[in-house]
What we know:
Helices cover 47% and strands 20% of the residues. By secondary structure, it is of the alpha+beta class. α1 (21-38) crosses α3 (60-82), α4 crosses α7 (261-295) and α7 (261-295) packs across α12. The longest helix is centred in the middle third of the chain and has 35 residues, at 261-295.
Amino acid sequence: MKTAVEKLNPTLAKIEVEVPFAEFKPYLERTYKNLGEQMSVPGFRKGKLPKTLIEQRAGFDYIVEASLNEALNDYYAQALGENDLSPLARPELDVQSQPTTDAREADVKLTIEVVVRPQIILPAYEGLEIEVEAAEVTAEDEAQALDALRERFGTLVAVDRPAADKDFVTIDITASIDGEEVDAANDLSYQIGSGTMLEGIDEALTGLSAGEDATFETKLSGGDHAGEQAVIKVKVSAVKERELPAADDEFAQLASEFDTLDELKEDIKKQVAEAKVAEQGSKARDKALEILVEKTEVPVPESVIEEQIEQHFSAPSADADHDTEEHRAEVRENTIKAFKNEIILDDIAEALEVQVDQAELINYIITMSQQYGMDPNQFAQMLDGSGQAGMLVGEVRRSKALGEVLKSAKVKDTNGKAVDLSKFLGDEA
Length: 429
């Protein structure tokens, strides 16, 4: 088999493929054999039909087409491998010549046009100079962290007053469309301001006391009528506020391994400082990527970007109201940015020979499953069933490559102080 590649542009390749009849013949033979085993003709044993009889029943043109359908995937894969091309989309194949009844031993000739991964010239990615905001731990930060811990051990207490932000309310709720009730639920617990229910419900609940109700209009976010405008009636049966335990030695013993509040506060101070460094690490990651993208020319295949944008807006969860010119422009920008990031980090991973072991993949799956609120095993099965397992390997590999870039980077804060990201990078691993 002979191949010749013409780059129509940096992301589009045209491959000319010529296959001698002798190399195509085995595919023809397999087709004859398969058809012979499927046909039943009196006087002949299955699998022993002569080719002339098979051709009479199936037709030579059909036999060639069936053989080509089997062969094309092999020819395509071989052409990609011989020319070191990585496809980004489905190819367009055009058969120029093939065996016919008039030329039964004609060579197979075809052209393949395919969007391919662009080749880039990597910039120097070691020793990047990165500046991040200074991480200053304030007394307010420590107080907020302590209060957050106290909230975890707080208790809900009923109060006789109108509901306010952060309060918990027990509610009955109904949804109606054109005067017909389409959904209802009773005794739901909801924290005002959490944003976990319908748009507009926080405003409707604020100011209501137990026994009072309110009506508002909004779009339903789930169920059979998702996306439809509905009238929502919500009635409050109880208003509760979270009562926090006193911040004392007894609380320190309840909420931690420490005996005194002072020891707990010291540990909280350390945790807040680590969180600030993690925040600096995240900012440094983003800035490192920005620098690499600025330094690298990455050709972008328009067809691939357009396909991803259409997938975004045609997804079942997509909101038709958000399909605006401004939103499409934003999605386009983010899609192009993500494409460039992947190309650059994949090439860095290749240059550094980054590998992903099973433990790293499992840890990544566990982390992702927690974000989706799913059991790790179920999440892994879902990924495997949808053919996305390979995608996860790429994600982990790119993340490790960016981590290697950060290890050699010179990171300073806005005060000129060197930032040690070793702990952050260790957590990332």
